[in-house]
Amino acid sequence: MHPRRVKLLAGVVFFVTVVCFLRSSSFSLLPSAKSRFPYTQEHCPAKPPQPSLVPPHREGFDWRTIETHYPVQSFAQLPKRTKNSLPRIQFAFEEEESPLYHELVRKRRQAAVRAAFVRCWTSYKHRAWMKDELQPISGGSKTTFGGWGATLVDSLDTLWIMDLKDEFEEAVSAVTQIDFTPEGEVNMFETTIRYLGGLLAAYDLTDCKDSRLLEKAMELGDMIYASFDTPNRMPITRWNSVMAAKGEKQSAAANGIIAEMASFQLEFTRLSQLTGDMRYYDAVVRVSNVLEEQQNRTKIPGLWPVGIDVQTPDLTQGNLFTLGGMSDSAYEYLGKTYQLLHGGGPTGQQYKKMYTAAMNAITTHLLFRPRTPNKADILMPNSIRVEGPLLLPDHTAQHLACFAGGMLTLGGRLFDNATHVLLGKQVTDACIWSYRHAPNGIMPEVFTMQACPSLAPCEYDHGRSCRWPGFEAVGDARYGLRPEAVESVFYIYRVTGDNGYQDLAWDMFQAIDSRSRTALANAAIGDVMKLGDQLELQDSMESFWLAETLKYFYLCFAEPDVLSLDKWVFNTEAHPLRLD
Ligand SMILES: *[C@@H]1O[C@H](CO)[C@@H](O)[C@H](O)[C@H]1NC(C)=O
Ligand SMILES: *[C@@H]1O[C@H](CO)[C@@H](O)[C@H](O)[C@H]1NC(C)=O
């Protein structure tokens, strides 16, 4: 060895020894960027930390210290995890070799989705940094969800997954500057799924190494937890945080919405798993107990209506049932929370029972077979209204309800029911059908279809003419950059391994991206049922475009072990939480 190298080597060895000594002793001579928070770890904890983690003292408003009006006497504890209790979800891709040509196509598509993301992200960074949303036409910004930087937090994990690590680092530094101060009335459902889900997923993706993210998640978790301080410990989902901060008493709404009451389970369960602080888990156990207790007492046993009284609580009076907006994630979270708990304990079994009862009612009441000119083998979710003894179905398709394809597919694997996997495929195919047969290749937000008398195939009624066969009446012709259809395509592809779905995803991506593109980013489309080269665009890009829609497109073209469904569970804003 060259003498100079030897010298250099000796120097390095000495330096490393000193560093190791300093690190292992209790000296804190080496300043670390993260030393403020003591919970830097090598990996995510296999079991909840004991004693539970406490966030360090910080400047600014502290939600942990506000007075509790209705204290909890004893906290539910997370069930012990049983090993390998979950069945395999994904198709065995590793046993197949894909031809070189497919690989090239896949990578080219993946790069195109990533480029679309980068374009939007760059515009957000330059024009709307730390604001909730970029306005993709005017280049302005909007405050829509508390003003804490919804797009910033919602995009963190997509940055990581797309391997934009410098951008991720820059975004995390910005996140540490967010102050969850009282803000007037806040939508706690959106705050939970977008912000808390976003922080937890980003933390999980760093394998729990970047404790700045956990610190922020705990800070926000404490704010959300304060909205459960009601006489019956049910959440206030449209919460006046300023009143709460002043110490005023509040109670849950008499006119509540089921999805808002019942979509905290994944985020709060994960927060308790990561911190050992059982307040969060306890809060959602109380909600789940109410769901279970009243599930068979509603006007359609097995389902919960959209409108509920959270104050009493009474979930049995409402007469409108749907898989679409305002209900969706209440059903979605049943199977997924079971998965996050690895099916463990009485709570795991409770979610399984609720899932099974709900899916049985859904397959009986909330799906219909649309009449289409090509007699397509598809099933669409519908809504149903109960009037006295009558059940009045409304065959209105909603883009929002397209998530149900993924829910049934995942649930079918989790609970070993092949019928659910098939139903999930038929629902997903109905959404794909709507994309393919709409004039611009994009499904509108809301439209009615002709329904067959049963779930069996039937003839299309050619006597009833409408301009676009299959689309009877279009109630809302917008496309708001929504993810639900590609979300379900992603699940079907990962579960069945059928790469025909990659081609369908690519068609959807091209239609959406080419029609919604602005000079800066992508914008909501005013009317997708219009023909023409230039569709009217709206100056809006919701944070879910970067958090969900582009992430699911990207994952359709990623290697199947990127965010494998056997290792991660996605919240309703596409934020992946770690299962192992
Ligand atoms: C609701 O009904 C279903 C099927 O009828 C049953 O399996 C389930 O245990 C019931 N749930 C409750 C809470 O009684
Ligand atoms: C699968 O689900 C369907 C509909 O929900 C139900 O009727 C059937 O009994 C289930 N099959 C099994 C094997 O659990």
Task: Explain this structure.
- The protein has one domain: Glycosyltransferase (Alpha/alpha barrel).
- The chain is mostly helical and 580 residues long.
- The chain has helices spanning 3-24, 100-127, 150-161, 165-175, 188-205, 211-226, 241-245, 258-261, 265-275, 279-294, 328-340, 345-365, 403-414, 418-437, 484-496, 500-516, 544-556, and strands spanning 133-134, 141-142, 185-187, 238-240, 256-257, 307-308, 320-322, 367-368, 380-381, 383-387, 390-394, 396-398, 446-448, 473-476, 568-570, 576-578.
- A hairpin with a 6-residue loop joins strand 1 (133-134) and strand 2.
- The two termini are 46 Å apart.
- The longest helix is centred in the first third of the chain and has 28 residues, at 100-127.
- The chain is built from 17 helices and 16 strands.
- Residues 1-10 and 12-35 have low confidence and may be disordered.
- One 2-acetamido-2-deoxy-beta-D-glucopyranose is lined by residues 292, 295-296, 353, 357.
- One 2-acetamido-2-deoxy-beta-D-glucopyranose binds next to helix 12 and helix 14.
- It comes from Amniculicola lignicola CBS 123094.
- Ca(2+) binds at residue 572.
- The active site is at 190 (proton donor), 328, 445 (proton donor), 484.
- Disulfide bonds join 402-431.
What does the secondary structure layout of this molecule look like, with pairings?
Elements: H1 3-24, H2 100-127, E1 133-134, E2 141-142, H3 150-161, H4 165-175, E3 185-187, H5 188-205, H6 211-226, E4 238-240, H7 241-245, E5 256-257, H8 258-261, H9 265-275, H10 279-294, E6 307-308, E7 320-322, H11 328-340, H12 345-365, E8 367-368, E9 380-381, E10 383-387, E11 390-394, E12 396-398, H13 403-414, H14 418-437, E13 446-448, E14 473-476, H15 484-496, H16 500-516, H17 544-556, E15 568-570, E16 576-578
The chain binds 2-acetamido-2-deoxy-beta-D-glucopyranose (2 copies).
Binding site for Ca(2+): 572
Active site: 190, 328, 445, 484
Cofactor: Ca(2+)
